Amino acid sequence: MPGTQSVHSPAGAGGSKGKLSKVIIVGAGPSGLLLSILLARQGISTTLLEQTSKLDEQPRAAHYAPPAVQILRKAGVLDDVAARGFKPSTFCWRKVDGSLIAKMTFPDNPDAMVVLPLDRLGKVLYAHAQKYEPVAKVLWSHRVVDIGQDEKKAWAKVETPEGEKVFEADYIVGCDGGNSKIRRALFGEMNFPGETLDAQIIATNVYYDFTKFGYLDTNYIVDPDNWHMVAKIANDGLYRVSYCDKPGMTAEEYKQRQPMRFQEFLPGSPKPGEYKITNISPYKLQQRCAPKFRVGRFILAADAAHLCNPFGGLGLTGGIADVGSLYDCLVGIHKGLAEDSILDKYAEIRRKIYTEVIDPSSRENFFRLSKNDPEKCAQTDPLLLDCQKAEKDPKLALEMSMFLNILLHDFTQYYTSRPSI
């Protein structure tokens, strides 16, 4: 991307205090929309730039753990999300023949996990964002082609349906996903260190009656050759089935193999016509983290900042936790309660949470399915042993269900002033 030599931290950017006038958010996925809503509720003007012409219709992730639930509540959208989704009651691990290895029942609590496919969440968030116009603006078909900054502002050169325009703001936040243009502009070709795991996933959304086989809300199947996940993601009988296949084939070849694969590992060995697939998407598993989450007036969040494999929902919930943290920091600056340097804290701590919690935990979740011995793991895997204990200990079950609150961090503790009462 040409002309990006000016994206380095401007001199004096760490000492200013005072109200924000505007924030630009790049990417109208759930993280970008959620940040826009949160800031608009505090009277902070946001312009959200999205290169596509409409919301992403790919369903992708669906599970929002307690940290994400708390932030959705703060944004005033949780009731609508819960009304369109559901709260799962159990999750378990099984052998490929369907026999149970271990399970845990979720205790009922206000912050319990909510399930709603990401494409449906996007529609809920966009409807809420529209309520805050003109404080919050969403501009479709606006593709960022260049960025820059100085001591007073950041800017983005954008291709629009009306021609090229330049948008300016106090800060620009990259919420534009794993292929983030903002991250690429900041860090060039070496923009996303990490690795692609040696595994191939095929994610499908499918209507099939798993309940007649005794399947629970979320089922992880432990098997070295046919590891997969079966999770209910809607009240109308829609399930997410994410399964492994041999690496190295084309997307079309994976799609052609799907009927054979379902017969090999799904209960009842169903044939086409006995289920209905609404979506199928092959993808690689990534464990990656940007070198920095802040460069001057540019900030990264969610998938633009870090990626992990989907098992355990750490990428989605971790991304929403980023948004909640960044919201606290920007509101503190806006209200004169925090200095610009609080954004360095955001970058430091959110990156640390990824490297010390999200990355190792998501890897462990992946290896639990693909590398464990299904005949022995109930007696050897620490998490599965804890799940068995939690089935008899409601207090332990509650602690385990709320474990991911470790992804949250209170950034108001770094405010240099306290709000007047």
Write a structural description.
The protein contains eleven helices and 19 strands. With 421 residues, it is of the alpha/beta class. It has two domains: 5-194 and 287-414, FAD/NAD(P)-binding domain; 197-286, D-Amino Acid Oxidase, subunit A, domain 2 (D-Amino Acid Oxidase, Chain A, domain 2). An eight-stranded mixed β-sheet has the order 5-4-13-14-15-12-16-19, with helices on both faces. The radius of gyration is 22 Å and the shape is globular. The termini are far apart.
Shape: globular
Q: Based on the structure, what is the oligomeric state of the protein chains?
A: single chain
Number of helical regions: 11
| CATH-level-2 architecture of the largest domain | 3-Layer(bba) Sandwich
Structural class per helix/strand content? alpha/beta
Q: In what order do the strands lie side by side in the largest sheet?
A: 5-4-13-14-15-12-16-19
Total strands:
19
Q: What proportion strand?
A: 15-25%
Q: Which sequence of SSEs, written as H and E, runs from N to C?
A: EHEEHHEEEHEEEEEHEEEEHEEEEHHHHH
- According to CATH, the homologous superfamily of the largest domain is FAD/NAD(P)-binding domain
Determine the mean pLDDT.
93
Would you give the CATH topology of the largest domain? Answer: FAD/NAD(P)-binding domain
Q: What integer value in Å does the Rg equal? A: 22 Å
How helix-rich are the residues, as a percent range? 25-40%
Number of folding domains? Answer: 2
N/C terminus separation: 47 Å
Largest sheet, if any?
8 strands, mixed
What is the level 1 CATH name of the largest domain? Alpha Beta
